[in-house]
Amino acid sequence: MKNVLFLGIIPMILFLASCENKDTAPSTQVAFVEQYSAIVYQNYSDAYTKALDLKVAIQALVSQPSEKTLQLARKAWLDSRPVYLQTEAFRMYAGPIDNDEGPEGRLNGWPLDESYVDYVQGAENAGIINRPDLFPNITQELLAELNEKDGETNLSAGYHVIEFLLWGQDLNLVPGTSGQRPYTDYVITTSGTGKHAARRAKYLQEAVELLLSDLDYLKKAWEPGKDNFRKSFAESPFIAIRKVLNGLKDFTGAELGGERMAVALGTKDQEDEHSCFSDNTNNDHLYDLIGIRNVYLGEYNTLSGSKIAGVGMSALVKAKKPELNTEIETLLTTIETQMRGFNMPFDEAILIPSEREKIQKTIDNLQLLSKKWLEAYDLVKE
After folding, report:
1. Cα dihedral 261, 266, 269, 272 sign
2. Whole-number Å distance between alpha carbons of 342 and 314
C-alpha cells in the first residue's frame, strides 16, 4: 500500500530547541537518527540472509521434489518472515522501501489473486505458469513487469506469491490446517498440474531471486558510509524524526490495525488475512508490532544473537512529555501481550465471537497507539 507523506510546513531545524536541556537536544536527535539507521541496515541485512536460506531450500525442493523438501522449503519461508516483518516499521514516509521506485509492492504485496499466478480450484489452466503461449520465458524481469499490472491483486512477485507456490490455496477451515499443495506439483509429468511443473519450479526460483535483489537494494540504501539514502536522511535530524513518526502513525493505525486486521474482521473472509495460505497471520501481526517497538526503544535483536541498543524515539518523547512516553510503552506491552495470546489461526478467530472480541480490543489499542504517534509528532516543533 502506498501512503501519501504528510509533513505540513516543516520548521527548518531544532525540534527540541525549547527543551530545558537545549545544549543536549540536537545531539540526542542526531543519536536517534544514527541508531535508527543502524537498526534499519541490520534488519534489512538479516532479512537478506534469511532469504538466502529460503533460496537454498527452494533449490532443494525443485531439484528433488518430495514431501520432505517441500516441508523444509515451507519452514524456510516461515523462518524468513519474522525478520522481514520487523522492517515494515520503516515504511510509509517515502523512504527506499515505498517511494515511487520502491519495491514494497514486489516484496510484501497482498492480497493475491491466486489465479494470476497458477491454477486454482475450478480453473486448472489459470495463471502465468500455465500460459506458456503468453509467457514463454519466466524471468525476474517478467515477474517485476507483471507485478500489479492491471490491478493491485495481480501480484506476480514477493513473499506471498512464494507462499502460494509452497502451500497452495487454503480451501478449508479445519483447525491446524493451511494450504495443501502437493509436492507432486513440482514433479514433471505429461498431464495434470505436473504438466507445467518445470515452469512452476522456474517461477519459484525466479521469484526468490527477485526477492533477494529487492532486499539487497534496500540494504544498500541504508549501508553506512555510502552516498545513499541513509546519508541524505541524516542531513536533517528534525525532518528525519518527523518522517519516522509519520510512518509509525500510518503503519500502526491504517495498515496494521486497519488493512491487516480490521478489514478481515469486518468481512470474515480468509482471503483478507495477510498470510492466508500458510496461516502465519498471527505471527505477521506480532512481528510487525515488534518492529514498531524496536524503533521506539532504539533496539534490535540480530540474527547473530547480539542486541543493538541505543537512543530510541522514547528518549525524545520522554524529554518533552514523560507521561506520553509511559502511555506509549504501556500500549506497546499491552498489544504484544494481546497478540501473543491469540491461540488459533486468524482465519478461524475472525469467525468466533469470543476471539473476535479479542481481536477488536487489539485493533482498538493499535488505533490508540497511532494517535499517540500523532501526539509525539506534534511535539516536534521549534
Report:
1. negative
2. 28
**14-30: pLDDT as tens digits:** 333 333 333 334 788 99
- Give the C-alpha separation, 350 to 356, whole Å: 5
* List of domains in the chain: 25-379 (1.20.1420.20)
Q: What pLDDT, in 10s, does the model give residues 28-64?
A: 899 999 999 999 999 999 999 999 999 999 999 999 9
Separation between Cα atoms, residue 120 and residue 123, nearest integer Å? 5
pLDDT, average across residues 310-323: 96
State the Cα–Cα distance between residues 239 and 366, nearest whole angstrom: 25
Selection from 233, 251, 276 nearest residue 374 by Cα:
251
DSSP letter string over 104-126?
A: HHHHS--S--GGGTS-BTTBTT-
Q: What is the pLDDT of residues 78-125, one digit of tens each?
A: 999 999 999 999 999 999 999 999 999 999 999 999 999 999 999 999
Q: Which residue has the cell 534499519?
A: 40
- Residue 3: is it exposed, middle or buried by C-beta count within 10 angstroms (0-12/13-18/19+)? middle
